[in-house]
Amino acid sequence: MGSAKKSSAARTARIEEMRRAEQTRERRNRILAITAGVVAVTGLVVGSVVLIQSQSDDGDSAAADTKAADGRFVTGADGVRKWEGTLGRDHVTKSVTYPVSPPVGGDHNPVWMNCDGNVYTDEIDNTNAVHSLEHGAVWVTYDDRADEADVEALAAKVKKTPYTLMSPVDGQKDPIMLTAWGHQRTVTGADDPAVDAFLQKFVQGEQTPEPGAACTGGLNG
Fold first, then answer.
1. What is the arrangement of strands in the sheet containing 164-168, beginning at the earlier edge strand?
2. pLDDT tens digit sequence for 140-154
3. Where in the sequence does UniProt note compositional bias of the Basic and acidic residues kind (predicted)?
4. Which of 66, 77, 92, 132 has the smallest C-beta neighbourhood within 10 Å, fewest atoms?
5. How far is the C-alpha of 182 from the C-alpha of 184, rounded, in Å?
6. How far, in Å, CA of 88 to CA of 12, rounded?
7. Backbone φ, ψ for residue 28 (5° rounding)
8. Position 34 confidence tier, pLDDT thresholds 50, 70, 90
9. Mean pLDDT score across all residues of the chain
10. Does pTM top 0.85 for this prediction?
11. Orientation of helix 2-42 relative to helix 193-202, angle to 10°
12. Crossing angle, helix 44-58 and helix 2-42, to 10 degrees?
């Protein structure tokens, strides 16, 4: 019992430290954005020439989907499915074909979905949600088979948990699923002990490619 309390307190302290770092990072990013804008204008003419040449060489490749990942799931004794294989991390602005739904990682949009306990009632773009996973968020998803009471209870839990987000995903494998970067599991409902266990392990967990990266300042639905 004491160990669990210490673990919870440590995670809370870690998240608060991440939030402070995030605020510093956002101020720095605003400065970088202004600088990048100047550079972008300077390179516009050169970029246009390169783009025209690229389109001549590649035909319609710019309109094609990009494949995000190669590999397969391996299920552990705890019921968590771990992705064994590659997960791309490039920033792309085109659509992405993910091998599983919800996706557990791969190439993604440069802008993340806000994941500071955000609950979305409509479907969100996978490419933005995957960017949130890269920042160490856990994504709670459900479809129309999920019990309404479970959805409401999970939403209340998400709203109290930094580095989480929640949204419906039509056609996913099971009614309620939890996803982190490279990891995923099904749960039976809001009171399933696996919910808290998954959050405890994967919110800003060791799997996080960019620990401490922002979960605010992105898209908000």
1. 69-75, 81-87, 183-186, 176-180, 138-142, 164-168, 116-119
2. 999 999 999 999 999
3. 13-25
4. 77
5. 7
6. 30
7. -65, -40
8. very low
9. 82
10. no
11. 50
12. 100
- CB count, 10 Å around CB of 185? 23
Strands, DSSP E only, in the chain?
66-67, 69-75, 81-87, 96-97, 116-119, 138-142, 164-168, 176-180, 183-186
Return the H-helix or E-strand segment holding 22: helix 2-42
Q: Which of 100, 180, 170 shows the shortest CA–CA distance to 142?
A: 170
Determine the Cα–Cα distance for residues 10 and 151; give it in Å rounded to an integer: 28
The C-alpha atoms of residue 136 and residue 204 are separated, in whole angstroms, by 4
Residues across the chain: 221
Contact 69, 99 (CB under 8 A): yes
Nearest to 166 by CA among 137, 209, 145: 137
Q: What are the contacts of 18-26 at 24+ separation with CB within 8 A?
A: 18/163, 18/204, 18/211, 18/212, 19/162, 21/212, 22/212, 22/213, 22/214, 22/215, 22/216, 25/212, 25/213, 25/214, 26/214, 26/216, 26/217
Q: Tokens standing for 54?
A: 């690229």
Torsion of CA 17, 30, 123, 88, to 10 degrees: -80
Q: Give the distance, in angstroms, between the CA of residue 41 and the centroid of all CA atoms in the same chain.
A: 31
- Per-residue confidence (pLDDT) for residue 70, from 0 to 100: 81
SS3 per residue for 1-21: CHHHHHHHHHHHHHHHHHHHH
41 or 191: whose pLDDT is higher? 191
